[in-house]
Amino acid sequence: MHLLNSRYALALLTGALSSLAFAPVGAYPLAPFGLAVLFVMLSETGKARPILTAFFYGLGFFGAGVSWVYVSLHDYGGMSAPLALLATFLFCALLALFPALAGGVKYRRKAGLAVQFLIWLPAAWTLLEWLRGWILTGFPWLAMGYSQVPDSPFAGYAPLLGVYGVSFVAALTAGALAWTWRSRASLVMASRGLVLVLVLIGLGAALKSVNWTRPFGAPFSVALVQGNIPQEMKWRPEVAAATLQTYLGLAESTRARLVVLPETALPVFFFDLPGAYKNHLRTIGQGRGGDVLAGVPSGDPSGHYLNSVASFGVAPTQFYHKHHLVPFGEFIPPGFGWVLDLLQIPLSNFSRGAISQTPLSVAGQKVAVNICYEDVFGEEIIRALPTATLLVNVSNDAWFGDGFAARQHRQISQMRALETGRMMLRATNTGATAIIDAKGRVLSELELSRRGILEGVGQGYQEMTPYARFGNLPVVLGLAILLFAAGLGQRLVKRQR
Hints:
Layout: H1 2-18, H2 30-44, H3 49-65, H4 69-76, H5 81-108, H6 113-132, H7 158-182, H8 187-207, E1 214-226, H9 231-234, H10 237-252, E2 258-260, H11 275-287, E3 291-299, E4 305-313, E5 319-321, E6 360-362, E7 365-371, H12 378-381, E8 390-395, H13 405-420, E9 424-428, E10 434-436, E11 442-445, E12 452-462, H14 466-470, H15 473-496
Parallel strand pairs: 1-2, 2-3, 7-8, 8-9
Antiparallel strand pairs: 1-12, 3-4, 4-5, 6-7, 9-10, 10-11
């Protein structure tokens, strides 16, 4: 029993350390190395214990990686500390069930080491990440692929395979390392695993030099506004006028052709926004020969409202309405109305925008806007392609405090830039406001939790990456076929014996 408890403690610690592969630490090698340790542990545990071992790995991984959920629930949602701790733990435990299911592969499938490490575990891990990304509206946060941008050689696979393809490459590398360790008694077998690791690294590094898209039009000036309005003050009626004036003053202070204000920067409904204020924003955009994009709730006075971005400037006013809403933060799932009694979240019942919306024609570009959490879903972003030449994300990560959630969110935006071969401009309330190029590199970024304007140069792009053309289907379908073929092969071998 002592040995068993030590194994679970090691799995918990390995999971927590693996989360350091993500921003803000960004020690990306820890992702495949941490998974390799887990895979070795799974291959050495007894019957049924791999599931618990993988569960504890997931508990450590998500417990360390998404602990900021507590801040959202307690500091800004008004939930009591004990209840917020319990809710955060249960949420992390729910997420840990996905690694646990991957761990169950060893329990149910008695395969050889090569099949176990190079097919079953990497494929199962990736498919369960994908499942986590859409079940119950999806929570793909901390998919392993997100840790591999853009410094990692595995970033080269992103335009080709997307985030889940990168996750599979990282998991396959982990499997090769685990196979090398378990086969260390045989120099020939161990060397095969190391060769596979080197091939995966070398191919990824070579793919990073491929330009899947090409520039569209001339470079243009951009300004991303970070208002740093405290979340607890954001929706108070008595400070709304001051907030509006703050953003107006910041927008006036730049000469950029495209100015972007963050999610719900204007804390009043569009239909309540004074006409003089709208005209002032329009004049600012026109004076620069471009446009201002501003986050603002819209809808109608009857109670139907949307989380939107509106344009003001040379182009006629256009809107983007958020489609993928955050459960409990922006809408209450049926049967969970009682949650409103525990949380104090304003505007927590938005309506969804249309699934497919035309990119906004502003500043000489076709801009695919996505609001906050939406950029976590790669297949939703590519709906705007190939028409869109530029990606713009507006967010309000103030809900997560000064922790690492904002940096993780920026890392996710880097993956979207890599997948699409488009620049990503991020304008946020408190950070991380950043200009990201088409290779996923952060060109410039504002410090967290300070008011300011990030000015730089934008560039439109055209044409499609392979991922933008086909989405997640090739990876998901390919891995499902791989698992089926491996399982069928095992049965045939067993019958021949």
